[in-house]
Design goal:
The chain is about 15% helix and about 25% strand. It has helices spanning about 15-25, 55-65, and strands at about 1-5, 30-35, 40-50, 65-70, 70, 75. The termini are far apart. By secondary structure, it is an alpha+beta fold.
Protein backbone atom coordinates (compact mmCIF):
# COMPACT_ATOMS: atom_id res chain seq x y z
CA UNK A 1 0.00 0.00 0.00
CA UNK A 2 1.18 3.49 -0.86
CA UNK A 3 0.53 6.41 1.50
CA UNK A 4 -0.52 9.82 0.17
CA UNK A 5 -0.67 13.22 1.81
CA UNK A 6 -3.63 15.32 0.66
CA UNK A 7 -3.81 18.97 1.63
CA UNK A 8 -5.67 22.09 0.67
CA UNK A 9 -9.15 20.62 0.27
CA UNK A 10 -12.22 22.53 1.58
CA UNK A 11 -12.74 22.14 5.33
CA UNK A 12 -16.34 20.99 4.92
CA UNK A 13 -15.34 18.07 2.67
CA UNK A 14 -16.06 14.62 4.17
CA UNK A 15 -14.15 11.34 4.01
CA UNK A 16 -16.72 9.92 1.60
CA UNK A 17 -16.33 12.84 -0.83
CA UNK A 18 -12.54 12.47 -0.78
CA UNK A 19 -12.76 8.72 -1.38
CA UNK A 20 -15.12 9.28 -4.33
CA UNK A 21 -12.64 11.77 -5.80
CA UNK A 22 -9.64 9.44 -5.41
CA UNK A 23 -11.47 6.24 -6.43
CA UNK A 24 -11.61 7.59 -9.98
CA UNK A 25 -7.83 7.02 -10.17
CA UNK A 26 -7.41 3.81 -8.15
CA UNK A 27 -8.53 1.85 -5.11
CA UNK A 28 -8.46 3.69 -1.77
CA UNK A 29 -7.76 1.35 1.15
CA UNK A 30 -7.87 3.76 4.12
CA UNK A 31 -8.43 7.46 4.72
CA UNK A 32 -7.86 9.67 7.75
CA UNK A 33 -8.85 13.33 7.77
CA UNK A 34 -6.92 15.19 10.47
CA UNK A 35 -9.20 17.10 12.83
CA UNK A 36 -8.73 19.33 15.86
CA UNK A 37 -8.99 17.23 19.04
CA UNK A 38 -11.29 19.61 20.92
CA UNK A 39 -13.51 21.10 18.22
CA UNK A 40 -13.44 18.18 15.72
CA UNK A 41 -13.05 20.74 12.91
CA UNK A 42 -11.04 19.59 9.90
CA UNK A 43 -7.51 21.01 9.67
CA UNK A 44 -7.53 20.81 5.86
CA UNK A 45 -5.31 17.80 5.27
CA UNK A 46 -5.63 14.04 5.23
CA UNK A 47 -3.71 10.81 4.72
CA UNK A 48 -4.82 8.14 2.25
CA UNK A 49 -3.54 4.68 1.43
CA UNK A 50 -3.88 3.51 -2.15
CA UNK A 51 -3.76 -0.16 -3.09
CA UNK A 52 -0.69 0.03 -5.38
CA UNK A 53 1.95 2.36 -6.78
CA UNK A 54 0.17 2.77 -10.13
CA UNK A 55 -3.02 4.01 -8.44
CA UNK A 56 -1.05 6.44 -6.28
CA UNK A 57 0.88 7.81 -9.27
CA UNK A 58 -2.36 8.28 -11.25
CA UNK A 59 -3.97 10.15 -8.35
CA UNK A 60 -0.95 12.46 -7.92
CA UNK A 61 -0.77 13.24 -11.65
CA UNK A 62 -4.50 13.87 -11.96
CA UNK A 63 -5.24 15.75 -8.73
CA UNK A 64 -2.09 17.61 -7.63
CA UNK A 65 -2.49 21.41 -8.03
CA UNK A 66 -6.14 21.16 -9.12
CA UNK A 67 -8.73 23.52 -7.67
CA UNK A 68 -11.75 22.44 -5.64
CA UNK A 69 -13.81 25.56 -5.15
CA UNK A 70 -11.37 28.33 -4.21
CA UNK A 71 -8.76 25.98 -2.70
CA UNK A 72 -5.83 24.31 -4.45
CA UNK A 73 -5.38 20.62 -3.78
CA UNK A 74 -1.93 19.29 -2.93
CA UNK A 75 -1.36 15.54 -3.37
CA UNK A 76 2.03 14.01 -2.59
CA UNK A 77 3.32 10.48 -2.12
CA UNK A 78 4.40 10.21 1.50
CA UNK A 79 7.88 8.79 1.82
CA UNK A 80 8.19 6.47 4.80
CA UNK A 81 11.02 7.50 7.05
CA UNK A 82 12.82 4.80 8.98
CA UNK A 83 11.99 4.65 12.65
CA UNK A 84 15.05 5.34 14.76
CA UNK A 85 14.84 3.60 18.09
CA UNK A 86 16.66 5.01 21.09
CA UNK A 87 18.86 2.69 23.12
CA UNK A 88 17.06 1.42 26.19
CA UNK A 89 19.47 1.68 29.06
CA UNK A 90 18.71 2.05 32.74
CA UNK A 91 18.13 5.72 33.54
CA UNK A 92 18.84 7.23 30.14
CA UNK A 93 18.30 10.97 30.20
CA UNK A 94 18.97 13.02 27.07
CA UNK A 95 19.65 16.19 29.08
CA UNK A 96 21.75 16.72 32.18
CA UNK A 97 19.77 17.08 35.38
CA UNK A 98 19.51 20.59 36.81
CA UNK A 99 21.47 21.29 39.97
CA UNK A 100 18.35 21.72 42.09
CA UNK A 101 17.52 18.01 41.89
CA UNK A 102 18.42 16.05 45.01
CA UNK A 103 21.70 14.28 44.86
CA UNK A 104 22.23 10.95 46.47
CA UNK A 105 24.25 11.24 49.66
CA UNK A 106 26.40 8.53 51.05
CA UNK A 107 25.58 7.10 54.46
CA UNK A 108 28.84 8.50 55.89
CA UNK A 109 28.18 12.08 54.86
CA UNK A 110 25.79 13.90 57.24
CA UNK A 111 23.10 16.03 55.76
CA UNK A 112 23.77 19.75 56.06
CA UNK A 113 20.98 21.81 57.54
CA UNK A 114 20.20 25.37 56.62
CA UNK A 115 20.18 27.88 59.45
CA UNK A 116 16.75 29.02 60.63
CA UNK A 117 15.63 32.48 59.78
CA UNK A 118 14.75 34.37 62.95
CA UNK A 119 12.50 37.41 62.71
Amino acid sequence: MIKLFVGGFPLEMTELELVKLFNLHGDVVTIKIVRDKKTKICKGYAFLEMKNQESADNAVLALDNTFIGDRQLSVKIREDQPVISKPKTGNFSPRPRPSYFKREQSAEEPRKKRPRKIN
